[in-house]
Specification:
- This protein has a single domain, classed as Rossmann fold, CATH 3.40.50.
- It starts with 7 loop residues before the first helix and ends with a strand.
- The mean pLDDT is 95.
- 39% of the residues lie in helices and 22% in strands.
- The protein has a 7-stranded mixed beta sheet, with helices on both faces.
- It is of the alpha/beta class.
- S-adenosylmethionine binds next to helix 3, strand 2 and helix 5.
């Protein structure tokens, strides 16, 4: 899986973003997302945690989807808006600045692809809305689901709550009869859940 076909200016922004906190997603996670976009040609994409819009711009480069994003940080939201203008995607984008926990319940309609990449400690809280908003046959891709590794004993005590939260999230995805979920070791681990 590769990132070929993306504008060099976007690839350069991705490299720069990797050097700061909360960077954009891992190369292999993006490559997987792009393969989903190419194969499935989603009509509507939702991203929780848009950051500077780099993954959004990459997905919009390889498919004709309309995109909805949610980002809490006003500086990143402004940067994302700049990037959507720079790469000429503004007319396909709706970007909400605010808390995903408040905005998700207000969203309507169906999405073919949801990329959950906001605060990991809120994944469980967001799940019912992701489920509601996902079209049948659509894909929920949750990033960083093995963020603290796979062995609970190896997790430092002060990170245990987050580790337990992620473990519970993985279990809910796996046990939910509405989803068919597979896990991959890309980046910090991704869950790919198809809504039956
Ligand atoms: C890992 S970054 C997202 C990277 C982005 N998806 C990408 O691949 O380029 C996580 C983002 O979630 C945002 N975030 C944190 N809490 C949030 C919340 N409650 N609602 C919406 N966004 C939030 C952060 O500001 C940060 O930009």
């Amino acid at each position: 899986m590769e990132l070929n076909g993306l504008p060099p200016a976007l690839l350069a922004l991705r490299e720069a973003a990797k050097t700061v906190r909360d960077p954009t997603c891992a190369d292999e996670t993006l490559a997987y997302l792009l393969s989903l976009c190419r194969e499935r040609s989603p009509a509507r994409i939702l991203e929780i945690g848009t950051a500077e819009g780099l993954t959004a711009c990459a997905m919009l480069t390889v498919c004709g989807a309309r995109y909805t994003g949610i980002e809490l940080d006003p500086v990143r939201t402004a940067k994302a808006r700049e990037n959507f203008i720079r790469f000429a995607f503004s007319d396909r984008v709706t970007l909400f600045e605010g808390d995903a926990g408040e905005i998700l319940p207000l969203l309507q309609g169906e999405y073919d692809l949801i990329f959950a990449d906001g605060p990991k400690v809120q994944y469980l809280r967001y799940l019912p809305d992701c489920k509601r908003l996902l079209k049948r046959g659509g894909v929920l891709l949750s990033d960083d689901v093995f963020f603290l590794g796979k062995e609970m004993e190896a997790v430092p005590k002060k990170r245990r709550m987050l580790a337990l939260h992620l473990a519970e999230y993985r279990q809910q995805l796996q046990n939910d009869p509405v989803f068919e979920t597979k896990f991959y070791d890309y980046g910090e681990g991704i869950a790919v859940s198809i809504k039956r």
